[in-house]
Amino acid sequence: QSVLTQPPSVSGAPGQRVTISCTGSSSNIGAGYDVHWYQQLPGTAPKLLIYGNSNRPSGVPDRFSGSKSGTSASLAITGLQAEDEADYYCQSYDSSLSGSGVVFGGGTKLTVL
Amino acid sequence: QVQLVESGGGLVKPGGSLRLSCAASGFTFSDYYMSWIRQAPGKGLEWVSYISSSGSTIYYADSVKGRFTISRDNAKNSLYLQMNSLRAEDTAVYYCARQVATITPIDYWGQGTLVTVSS
């Protein structure tokens, strides 16, 4: 069981808008720690997509946006394109855990219909 | 440009050992915290181990504590993961990853190296 909970899958048609949720608790997202999102295209390494809840690294299209509220965060993708089909992971920090505190969601597979 | 290149993966029998390496370039290696993150076939991401920029602070996931050892050589711009007493459940792609600190994002990932533990 992952510390952060994501839906296993979402889908949408080209041009549509989809959202992926990431639910945590009072020791991670709810404690104010930032949420980061990664995109993993098939057969490749993850790539940073959104950092600090809502910031896009250089080169990431503005079709991708992030938000955070309470103990949850969301990734929104507008104007869905075929190349957006990938696995998406949220990540945050959890103060209640031993170790580094780095925690991931279980991942969400986005299918473009 | 930032590059992280892992090596050392392969097929090993249960109970065996393997040493992974990660060669870093394109940035000041000694300024960054580094982690190993793994992904079992068809599964999600699992943080494995973390080492601070100087090497003075090290953390391990409970699943590998006592079996894996992370280290770094800042003079050689390299990160290592010594894996002993390997189990079938350690089978995964192992990624080398860069962070400024534990609460900051993982801004660069290597391409990964596959470790397969099987008899």
List keywords for this structure.
heterodimer, A: 113 residues, 6-stranded mixed β-sheet, 3-stranded antiparallel β-sheet, B: 119 residues, 7-stranded mixed β-sheet, 4-stranded antiparallel β-sheet, globular
What does this structure look like?
The complex is a heterodimer of chains A (113) and B (119). Chain A is mainly beta and 113 residues long. Chain A has no helices and 9 strands. In chain A, strands 1, 3, 4, 7, 8 and 9 form a 6-stranded mixed sheet that branches. In chain B, the strands form 2 sheets. In chain B, strands 2, 4, 5, 6, 9, 10 and 11 form a 7-stranded mixed sheet that branches. The mean pLDDT of chain B is 96. Chain B has 119 residues and is mainly beta. Classes of the chains: A mainly beta (113), B mainly beta (119). The A-B interface holds A 2, 33-34, 36, 38, 44-48, 51-52, 57, 89, 91, 93, 98-107 and B 35, 44-47, 50, 59-62, 95, 102-112.
Map the helices and strands.
The complex is a heterodimer of chains A (113) and B (119).
Chain A: E1 9-12, E2 18-23, E3 36-40, E4 47-50, E5 64-69, E6 72-77, E7 86-93, E8 102-104, E9 108-112
Chain B: E1 3-7, E2 10-12, E3 18-25, E4 33-39, E5 45-51, E6 58-60, E7 68-73, E8 78-83, E9 92-99, E10 108-109, E11 113-117
Parallel strand pairs in B: 2-11
Antiparallel strand pairs in B: 1-3, 3-8, 4-5, 4-9, 5-6, 7-8, 9-10, 9-11
How many strands of chain B?
Answer: 11
Q: What is the 3D shape of chain A?
A: globular
Topology as H/E string of chain A? EEEEEEEEE
Low-confidence region ranges of chain B = none
What is the helix content of chain A? under 10%
**Strand percent estimate of chain B:** over 45%
Put simply, the count of helices of chain B is: 0
Order of helices and strands of chain B: EEEEEEEEEEE
Round the Cα radius of gyration of chain A to an integer and report it.
13 Å
Mean pLDDT across all amino acids of chain B: 96
Portion in strands of chain A: 35-45%
- Radius of gyration of chain B from the CA trace? 13 Å
Largest sheet of chain A: 6 strands, mixed
Shape of chain B: globular
Which ranges of chain A are low-confidence, i.e. pLDDT below 50, for 5 or more consecutive residues? none
Helix content of chain B: under 10%
- What is the terminal separation of chain A in angstroms? 29 Å
Biggest interface, chains and residue tallies? A-B, 26 and 22 residues
How would you describe the oligomerization state of the chains in this entry? Answer: heterodimer
